[in-house]
């Protein structure tokens, strides 16, 4: 449903140009010459037909890189405990206060390590052009303001998220968390999920998310998410949580995980664990170090562009829509296949002969449009019309 990219970098992508020329038969396929020193020193070149791009290639399922971001996450100083907290606690420290300081130091050390291990391209600013309008977000934010005003830090208390742990002493819990700790969890977990959603939506996701949260008893995982596109073209998500979740920490981790997916889909049109999803997970951990680290799901399917060879992984089969999938970057056909244990196997399926590939090979040179993007957009329209004619006959 997304309008494909018209990024000028596509037209100047030398790697893509060479692959296209080989696909069209304009240049001969070349074989790498034998080099006895190849095991000791190797300089990359474009002569190897099967040489893949970087595994961190982010062309597939990503938004237009030309759009300038409106804001960047502010990463707090994680190296040392806050001096204000130490001064507020004073010199007469109880054992519980010492535990609070120790937990704070450990948390900041872990957050600092997380920061050092995050790739630089994930730290780049998030494209916020896909957020709802300011008016819509202002209306959504009305639901958050009261809760947001209640989660402010207390120098001698744990923050709200850490206060949900069963090991946190009740007398040192954040006031907003005490009620959830004292009540039966089964009776308050739905209310807790809504409260957490408002907090995270306000603190992390710019008050732009509006997914539904439902609970189910029969699930194969602790949580999942369903995406849909409404008649007006608006992307919406529904978060599904397992009814048998037993403690608050599971709610925090699973809800945050699915909210990152929801933001990547609603703001960027991205499914699976692409760079946008990872950027939202990084922003969450950077803004609120007490949150759990969000890692990629175990992928069930891999999506490979048969021209530029960009690759993505996810859990959606696209069974009925697979023939209509196109690479966001070069707009060529995308192949969907099940993941194996060796998900980074570099033997690409570019030898597949499909009706689409034959159609593009026969008609690419006949297009009157200038530039690869314009030609491919026109060919995709023509191919869809061609398929409709075949089905009607």
TrEMBL record:
Residues 64-83 are annotated as: Disordered. Residues 190-337 form the SprT-like domain. Residues 64-74 have a biased composition (Polar residues). InterPro entries: SprT-like_domain. This is Uncharacterized protein LOC108618773 isoform X2.
């Amino acid at each position: 449903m997304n309008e494909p990219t018209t990024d000028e970098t596509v037209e100047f992508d030398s790697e893509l140009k060479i692959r296209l020329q080989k696909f069209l038969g304009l240049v001969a396929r070349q074989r790498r010459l034998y080099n006895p020193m190849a095991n000791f020193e190797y300089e990359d070149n474009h002569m190897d037909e099967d040489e893949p791009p970087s595994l961190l290639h982010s062309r597939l399922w990503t938004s237009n890189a030309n759009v300038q971001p409106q804001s960047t996450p502010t990463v707090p100083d994680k190296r040392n405990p806050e001096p204000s907290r130490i001064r507020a606690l004073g010199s007469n420290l109880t054992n519980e206060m010492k535990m609070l300081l120790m937990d704070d130091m450990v948390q900041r050390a872990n957050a600092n390590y997380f920061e050092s291990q995050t790739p630089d391209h994930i730290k780049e600013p998030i494209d916020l052009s896909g957020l709802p309008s300011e008016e819509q977000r202002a209306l959504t934010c009305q639901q958050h303001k009261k809760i947001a005003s209640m989660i402010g830090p207390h120098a001698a208390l744990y923050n709200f998220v850490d206060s949900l742990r069963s090991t946190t002493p009740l007398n040192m819990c954040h006031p907003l968390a005490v009620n959830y700790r004292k009540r039966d969890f089964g009776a308050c977990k739905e209310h807790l999920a809504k409260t957490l959603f408002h907090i995270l939506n306000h603190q992390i996701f710019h008050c732009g998310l509006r997914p539904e949260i439902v609970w189910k008893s029969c699930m194969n995982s602790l949580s999942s998410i369903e995406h849909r596109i409404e008649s007006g073209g608006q992307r919406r998500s529904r978060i599904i949580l397992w009814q048998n979740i037993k403690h608050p920490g599971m709610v925090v981790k699973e809800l945050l995980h699915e909210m990152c997916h929801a933001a990547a889909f609603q703001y960027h049109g991205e499914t699976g664990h692409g760079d946008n999803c990872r950027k939202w997970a990084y922003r969450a951990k950077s803004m609120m170090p007490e949150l759990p680290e969000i890692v990629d799901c175990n992928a069930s399917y891999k999506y490979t562009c048969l021209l530029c060879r960009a690759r993505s992984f996810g859990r959606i089969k696209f069974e009925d829509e697979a023939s209509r999938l196109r690479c966001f970057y070069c707009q060529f056909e995308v192949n969907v296949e099940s993941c194996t244990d060796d998900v980074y196997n570099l033997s690409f399926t570019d030898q597949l002969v499909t009706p689409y590939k034959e159609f593009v090979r026969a008609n690419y040179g006949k297009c009157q449009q200038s530039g690869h993007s314009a030609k491919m957009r026109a060919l995709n329209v023509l191919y869809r019309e061609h398929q409709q004619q075949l089905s009607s006959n």
